[in-house]
Amino acid sequence: MKGYIISDKDYQSRIYTRLWELVTANLTEKEFQIEHREIGRDELAFCKGCFGCWIKQPGECTIKDSMAEINSRYMNSDVVVYLSPVIFGQFSANLKSAIDRWLPNYLPFFMTRPDGSTMHPPRYLTYPKQIIIGYGEAVSKEDAQLFVDITKKHRRNIEVLFFNGCDSDCTSFLNQIKLERVGGQL
Amino acid sequence: MSMSNKIVLINGSPKINEESVSGYLVSLLSDRIGTDGINKIIINVRQSLTRHQTLSDFEVISKADAIVIVFPLYIFCLPAMLTRFLEDYYHYYSETGKIAGNQKIYPIVNCGFPEAEINGEAVHVVQSFSRHINAEYRFGILIGSGGMLIGAKGAPFMKKAMIKLQNAFDEIKSDSLNNAHQNLEDVLININFPRWLYFFMGDRGFIHDAHKNGLKKKDMLRKPYRANEPS
């Protein structure tokens, strides 16, 4: 089983180090082979909203940088864990660059989710189980909740936690998740 | 009422050369608020970052009475490019402590999906940003089917939405010019257009654009990272 961890190179605080230890220990104990990708400032270009990944080079971003490698590793892992600083209640810019450029992995067309909202259909039959963990010192309750809402209100099959430094919360969160590939319905 | 309020309009579209809905909204808003008693400055985030002029732009933003942040929704929150700009502005603010008193902030968010309320969390992110820089979040404008503002410009079914948008722009102008601090509701703008037809036309539009690039519909379904997966 392959686990892929994507984290922010620029926010390596004490709470991040502890979170990293907990996540890697948990995955190692479950016999995952872990690959790690840190994203620093200016390492990835910003998505420019060109839709080239849908209408020019389907399934691949047209910007030539290391995002192609990240998307390939992402799509071929069993579990992907994003460790993101919580900035204004959302992802940091470094992590958001990778998340914005995840668009090629879905199709351009429109469909309706069970809750009546709109989504794009999956390009692939199965996807890695996605886990998003936000962290940060002095993050307000509002911002921590917003970080969870951004994903959980709009996505099924993605698990989100705000890590406030409590080891047992993180471990029990990870232990509740079935760590295997899932269908692509958003 | 203060004289010559300074309003900064921030265009947060990451697009490079293509026409963007955010850029269109900035020009509509700029025209609507006019120049009477207002000193308007437009900042394009992409240009600011690529031309390395963020520091001078931050100086301008820090002296504004009101800031309008216009952007598209990317994966249910702010595009990474705008996130970078606001993160850097926050560091500038934290280090210099420079900011005009009682700054008012207004986000305008548009998304490609028909439901305006999908923009809700992005507006909350701007609320959080406002708290972090000790500014006052006033209200946001949340727009669904954003592409239709350009694609169906002038169509009769757009009229109601455009009037609502203009009224919201007027509200930004009047609120930014006075000393009111009462709570204001966000404005949701949904286009009165059949959902099934929006989906149909959107899908056709993507297929048409792919055809122009020499691709057939089946090419659009490629699976480059899992080539052996069945269709």
Q: How is this structure best described in words?
A:
The complex is a heterodimer of chains A (186) and B (231). The radius of gyration of chain A is 16 Å and the shape is globular. The longest helix of chain A is centred in the first third of the chain and has 16 residues, at 14-29. Chain A is 32% helix and 23% strand. Chain A is an alpha/beta fold. In chain A, a hairpin with a 5-residue loop joins strand 4 and strand 5. In chain A, the strands form three sheets. Chain A has a five-stranded parallel sheet, with helices on both faces. A two-stranded antiparallel sheet of chain A has the order 4-5. Chain A has one domain: Rossmann fold (3-Layer(aba) Sandwich). In chain B, 43% of the residues lie in helices and 16% in strands. Chain B contains eight helices and seven strands; from the N terminus they run E-H-E-H-H-E-H-E-H-E-E-H-H-E-H. Chain B is globular, with a radius of gyration of 19 Å. Chain B has two domains: 5-191, Flavodoxin domain (Rossmann fold, 3-Layer(aba) Sandwich), CATH 3.40.50; 195-222, no CATH class. In chain B, helix 1 (21-33) links the parallel strand 1 and strand 2 (38-44).
